């Protein structure tokens, strides 16, 4: 059984210990008098739940807001004097940052139940956070489905050699992230990673951007400049959308790949450059070769080690993990009261076909972080709203699941995490109790 731990912030530590010890003997309680002490404690110890005993004489609303915003990953419960809640800044703190609150004088038993529920909710949140094996945790490629596991294995294999890599994948599927993973796992990880979008550079400038130029090479060239290829020396050069490279520049790139040297515009001197080339395209280059839009000899130079990035529709088992990952990655854009995804939002994410792949998922999650008004993201916040005929049953299912989960957690807390006793209290068998715990991803 996981030991429950509570960080209590209260001006009078002894009063808090006496109050809490009476009803929370199975908790490990650490009491501190100030926010500064609490911050120091949180730098060295991990807590899932915090109790804030409000004292308007020593705790300023602005300081409380900053502290709670910084530690918003925890579940916070507050204790307030009734007159304190007449203050608008105090009410804002409750609404923005706390999962629940009590008014003084406090009933220890009720407070213990509230803190137990907060701990259960924190445990559920922790289990939905992206978890990966050691090999996966070192990779920027998030997920555990078969397709992404195969991709990570491919990346680790090709990263060990210096041959060119050609990455194919649909737009928004994560080709640049895959290239970064190749660089990160290679012996060039300490060198630069230089990405170049071949379709975003003007055809009239692409030669000077790639290969650099000398002073006086053209009007306005008042001093020499190293090109992007040269700036990648000792590292990895990522040529994104290589299929959009003009035919004349394809010949120059082929020469560089063959000779490992470049010549700046306006110079006759060659410069040796040591780079690993990784290219990517959302179009099949074999088809571009057949149509005469891409040089066949350049294709075979680039496609020594081909890698395919799976579209998001083939990674459905990773949808929730990815959504949670981006929720935490862009958490500084959300309201402090926003705690995660509702069951309806998760269902909408799983039902959507994701034609825009991972890029679309990122954009929808970021939009939801800004647009959501409640504590949980809804399908409408993601732009994935269902028709009204489907929403009512989903809402009822959501409510039933939450009620069932809450009842299980409270019963386990009352029984001291004793499954047999909790089952008796609920009037069900131990087998049914274990089935319910498994259904909700809960542990005793």
What secondary-structure arrangement, pairings included, does this model have?
Blueprint: E1 4-9, H1 13-21, E2 27-32, H2 35-44, E3 49-53, H3 61-70, E4 75-80, H4 88-97, E5 100-103, H5 108-128, H6 134-137, H7 146-159, E6 165-168, H8 175-185, E7 193-197, H9 206-211, E8 212-213, E9 225-226, H10 228-231, E10 236-240, H11 247-259, E11 261-263, E12 270-272, E13 276-281, H12 285-290, H13 296-302, E14 305-308, H14 319-329, E15 340-341, H15 343-351, H16 357-371, E16 376-377, H17 388-414, H18 419-426, H19 430-439
Helix pairs in contact: 3-4, 5-17, 7-8, 14-16, 17-18, 18-19
Descriptive notes:
The structure is a single chain. By secondary structure, the chain is of the alpha/beta class. The strands form five sheets. A five-stranded parallel beta sheet has the order 2-1-3-4-5. The chain has a five-stranded parallel beta sheet with strand order 7-10-13-6-14. The protein has 19 helices and 16 strands. α5 (108-128) crosses α17, α7 (146-159) crosses α8 (175-185) and α17 packs across α18. The chain has three domains: 4-128, Rossmann fold, CATH 3.40.50; 141-310, Rossmann fold; 314-439, Helicase, Ruva Protein, domain 3.
Report the total helices.
19
- Nearest-integer average pLDDT: 84
Strand order of the largest sheet: 2-1-3-4-5
* Shape field: elongated
Number of strands: 16
Q: What would CATH call the class of the largest domain? A: Alpha Beta
Uncertain segments: 129-137, 387-394
Query: By CATH's scheme, which homologous superfamily of the largest domain applies?
Result: P-loop containing nucleotide triphosphate hydrolases
User: How many structurally independent domains?
Assistant: 3
**Using only CA atoms, what is the Rg?**
29 Å
User: Percent of residues in helical segments?
Assistant: 40-55%
Largest β sheet strand count, sense and barrel closure: 5 strands, parallel
Query: Span from first to last CA?
Result: 6 Å
Give me the secondary-structure category. Answer: alpha/beta
Which strand-content bin applies to the residues?
Answer: 5-15%
**Which CATH-level-2 architecture of the largest domain?**
3-Layer(aba) Sandwich
CATH domain topology of the largest domain: Rossmann fold
